[in-house]
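Morning - pyridoxal-5'-phosphate inputs below, output right after.
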Amino acid sequence: MIPYGRQSISQEDIEAVTQVLKSDYLTQGPVVPQFEDAVAQYCDAKHAIAVNSATSALHIACLALGVGKGDVVWTSPISFVASANCALYCGAEVDFVDIDSNTYNLSVEQLQIKLEQADKRGKLPKVVIPVHLAGQPCDMEGIRALSNRYGFKIIEDASHAIGAKYKNFPVGNCKYSEITVFSFHPVKIITTGEGGMALTNCPDIAERMQLLRSHGITRDADKMTKQPDGQWYYQQLDLGFNYRITDIQAALGLSQLERLDIFIEARQKIAQRYNEMLSDLPITLPCLHQQNQSALHLYIVRLQLDKITLSHKEFFSRLREKGIGVNLHYIPIYLQPYYEKFGYHQDEFVNANTYYSEAISLPIYPDLTESAQIYLCEFIKDLVSNQGK
Ligand SMILES: *Cc1c(COP(=O)(O)O)cnc(C)c1O
């Protein structure tokens, strides 16, 4: 099976991990801060807090911004469930903003309309979480302008987007947000096995996230409520978690980071080939903003179903049967059984519904070979012309 995404591991990666295994610290050693500094520097952000997943990062990001009971958090319905779950963890409510029909990111136009309505009802969101779907940056200037007007905070879910650029600046610099979150799951752009990171330029937010990552405990005497009892002393100041990443993982991340630009180039080359090979078919190709650079985590196409005899479902299963590991990113979150009880009105999300009925993610990852790509494009051509019969 050709997967839709997978990690690329080099001999250097293996050696970096082995070195930690032979060292004194498997966790809470020197490599985690090295990894944090390297990512902060790459992204031009002031602070980086590494954790054991992007899900954890989103959770402590919400908490650090004060999200709690009675608050509302908005995000895109076309995302992984973690983008919404983080608000529920904090006891807040979640609502969704429909997507843009070209980029599939949260629509700024829809956001504005929804904010005007929410303002009238006195129920504005505390935080909005735009998701850079497939690695393509959202319209952050537009979202920031609305945040200045309506007073909400912004967490960028950049799980797909390390290495992406928004108007020539790296995603993660938090120029338009309070916090940006990355994922280092193996299907994402760089990996630590499991892992994530939260970046911010605000020292207070950074400090709160550091505390929450490790049980709410501090060993810094300056932050304690009294003089330490002795050198063993630590204080728990808040109810935190064990969301720490290990040095073993951080070593892999640090080594992977060195190849981040190479990974993005490889993804661009693959996307370019898809653009050429699939150009004359009844398939809508990704619409990428020229001013930005997508990290191309996903290559999402949409079937023009009025010009294809096969249904979306049939098309998908023909590819799977052929050993082509296509996927669908994502099932609208409001359709998940767990979310149904919150009573969302599906009709509100016209673009997300249509998207879900047409979208397919084709394989894209740095080690995908040209021959595998030609093979799968030929099969897609067969499917749309002779209907694969
Ligand atoms: C992968 C992903 C997450 C969760 O990442 P983990 O590191 O697996 O917790 C969150 N949001 C989006 C958009 C993702 O793709």
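Note: Residues 53-55, 79-80, 82-83, 131, 157, 159-160, 183, 185, 196 surround pyridoxal-5'-phosphate (CB under 6 Å).

O.
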